[in-house]
TrEMBL record:
Superkingdom of the organism of origin: Bacteria
PANTHER family, sorted: HIGH-AFFINITY BRANCHED-CHAIN AMINO ACID TRANSPORT ATP-BINDING PROTEIN LIVF
GO molecular function (one): ATP binding
Ranges of residues in domain ABC transporter: 2-233
Keywords: Amino-acid transport, ATP-binding, Cell membrane, Membrane, Nucleotide-binding, Transport
Record family assignment: Belongs to the ABC transporter superfamily.
InterPro entries: AAA+_ATPase (IPR003593), ABC_branched_ATPase_LivF/BraG (IPR030660), ABC_transporter-like_ATP-bd (IPR003439), ABC_transporter-like_CS (IPR017871), BCAA_Transport_ATP-bd_LivF (IPR052156), P-loop_NTPase (IPR027417)
Alphabetized Pfam families for the sequence: ABC_tran (PF00005)
Name the UniProt record assigns to this protein: ABC transporter ATP-binding protein
Gene3D superfamilies xref list: P-loop containing nucleotide triphosphate hydrolases
Amino acid sequence: MLKLENVSTFYGAIQALNEVSVEVNQGEIVTLIGANGAGKTTLLMSVCGNPRARSGRITFLDEDITQESTHVIMQRGIAISPEGRRVFPDLTVAENLNMGAFFLNRAQTEEGMEHVFDLFPRLRERAGQRAGTMSGGEQQMLAIGRALMTRPKLLLLDEPTLGLAPLIIAQIFDIIRTIREEGVTVFLVEQNANKALQVADRGYVLETGKVVLADTGANLLSNDEVRKAYLGA
Ligand code: ATP
């Protein structure tokens, strides 16, 4: 479904991704783990065309999207819940969800919002509340909900459990499973390697901009190097 082939991305002279090749198949949950600064966020953002890959090729549903602009990539069926959630604190829950619906017509927006409210009943209860006054977990649900407004085929999730309490983390992983059951493919970046590999069909390990390991979630969980470096074993 999504394919990165030898993708290199730079910030000026700084190379953040070095010939990265990654594949996400339809219906999968794929997890990307790696230390701080390994390039995980850059990889997800490169899929969205911002920053654009300097070399290599990115295809989505067999179409080359390497040079597409971000809004065209979103219209093709990719959505992202960015690192740090980035909800608009002064806007209400409903207004934040509307921001995720920028290219939908009114009927599609209403349908999208109903779908998000079915998935996150808490957001329905809080539809009129300003996002900045909600808990971290609620804001994360809102960020995921906003990404789902366009009914994407592929959802990119950047560190959805960062800074959340264990109980909320478990809820977020349950939601990720539910989203996949609804037919959305998920590409997940996580610091919480243990939980993220448990939920994943397959995973990749990124080190200083390079993919160093690729395997099933189960195999990565039992891999000695992964256990030492990322699972605190
Ligand atoms: P973290 O988990 O800490 O967010 P990450 O694996 O997501 O890390 P990136 O944020 O993708 O890593 O960063 C990869 C590299 O690119 C780092 O060396 C970082 O300093 C650099 N980098 C990221 N964003 C920028 C930017 N806007 N300008 C310059 N360098 C950047």
